[in-house]
Amino acid sequence: MMNTYLNRRPHRHMENYGMARIISVFNNKGGVGKSTICWNLGHALGTQGKKVLLVDFDPQCNLSIAVLGEDGFVSNLPQENQPYGTTIRSFLQRFLQNTGGEGVFLHKGLHTDQNVDLVAGDFWLNVYADSLNVGNDLLAGTGLSRYVALRRLVSEAEKQAGHKYDFVLVDLPPSFGALVRASFYSSDYYIVPCTSDNFSVYCVSLIGQMVPAFVNDWNTGLARFKETNPHYDYFNEFGRPVFAGWVFNGFDTASKRRNAIEMASKPKGPKEMTQADRTLHERLGRAVKEALVAPLREKIQDYQAVLEGLPENFQVGDIEDANVLIQNSIWLSVPLGELEKHNQVASLIDRRAWNDNQIKQIRLFKEKFNETATTLITTCL
Q1: How many Å apart are CA 333 and CA 109, to the nearest integer?
Q2: 99: DSSP letter
Q3: In what residue span(s) does the AAA domain sit (predicted)?
Q4: What backbone phi and psi angles, to 5 degrees, belong to 268?
Q5: Which of 16, 119, 244, 377 has the fewest Cβ atoms nearer than 10 Å?
Q6: Tell me, what DSSP letter sits at residue 166?
Q7: CA-to-CA distance for 175 and 179, rounded, in angstroms?
Q8: What's the whole-number average pLDDT of the chain?
Q9: At 59, is the secondary structure helix, strand, or coil?
Q10: Taking the domains of the chain in order of start, what are their residue ranges?
Q11: Distances (CA, A) of 329 to 14, 18, 41
Q12: Is 164:53 a contact under the CB 8 Å cutoff?
């Protein structure tokens, strides 16, 4: 009986056009650029006219600091006259304690596209994570609402903003913990940033193991909940995250070797990925196909767990190593593709103006994030 119900459970993003597409940006490996991609991708979507909400669901709050600047972020933490602060805590603590009046505060970055809003993170998210119990809340089906509070937060944010969002991008901690589960259960899709190293290859396989387990746990809890609440359908659309591709991030390039005639005709030739990064890129591509996509398709039977329309290698973006540009970007709270409009931070480098190669790289970042944004618009909306 349980399997029959689950197999006919509706799929939210197949039926509810016009609703915000919630996308988790996730890898259990740290240092893969989740926050950077979340911010710059959100900015690119905003410049293409999409309404975007960024949710910092990571207690480290790197996304919030990047968008708002360190001082701007700190000013949103709890104060004497604002005991919950103006971060995500303001909503989640009151939701968790059932005191009512859950408030969502929306922030805008000075240099981030104005179509983009931010729900700032908070170290307090660790407390929220500790409150989530897989056995009592999830598997027993008695606390499902705790695991999908993020969806309610988005609804409240839309009321506050006065409009619907096209995309909600959620920045997550590098773990398989409660916050990641909660985001996955509320999300329509997830994308996986990967860097050029062997551990990224290994982590891809872990994601292929854990996501089906997450989905199975949700189905178990939902089935138990439905035994005593057969007509309550609010939770039906949750717990069905779809893999929407991976992003190859932080690789190096070098000028392609050319003969004397080629060099004479065009002194500065095209750059290409270094041999080491090409090798790891190929390994990652195989790992995504064999250790992530294949298990998702095999183990998740009650919905389509891999997005249709993706490239053959499932890659939706490639972002070169930003080097000193990323340091300037974060210090200035300026997305990578907009750095050309600003001087470098004096304490980071001797010269203030960008050199020609840096300007080319800045423009390339803008192009690449716009390409990924276009892919998401085409495949997810």
Answers
A1: 7
A2: -
A3: 21-220
A4: -105, 105
A5: 16
A6: S
A7: 9
A8: 90
A9: coil
A10: 2-375
A11: 37, 33, 14
A12: no
Compute the distance between CA of residue 7 and CA of residue 222 in angstroms, rounded to an integer. 13
CATH class, domain 2-375, is alpha beta
Task: For the chain, report the end-to-end CA distance as a whole number of angstroms.
Answer: 33
CB 166 within 8 A of CB 253: no
One-letter amino acid for residue 118 of the chain: L
Distance CA 190, CA 375 (A): 14
Q: Look at residue 4 and tell me whether its pLDDT is greater than 50.
A: no
Q: Where are the alpha helices (DSSP H) in the chain?
A: 2-7, 12-15, 34-47, 62-68, 70-74, 89-97, 125-131, 144-147, 149-161, 178-186, 198-228, 260-265, 275-287, 294-299, 324-332, 356-380
131: exposed, middle or buried (C-beta count within 10 Å: 0-12, 13-18, 19+)?
middle
Is residue 283 a contact partner of residue 204, using CB atoms and an 8 Å limit?
Answer: no
> What DSSP string runs through 20-33?
-EEEEE--SSSSS-
Mean of pLDDT values over 179-196: 97
Choose the weakest-confidence range: 171-175, 278-282, 329-333, 350-354: 350-354
CA–CA gap between residue 360 and residue 364 (Å, rounded): 6
* 360/311 Cα distance (integer angstroms): 26
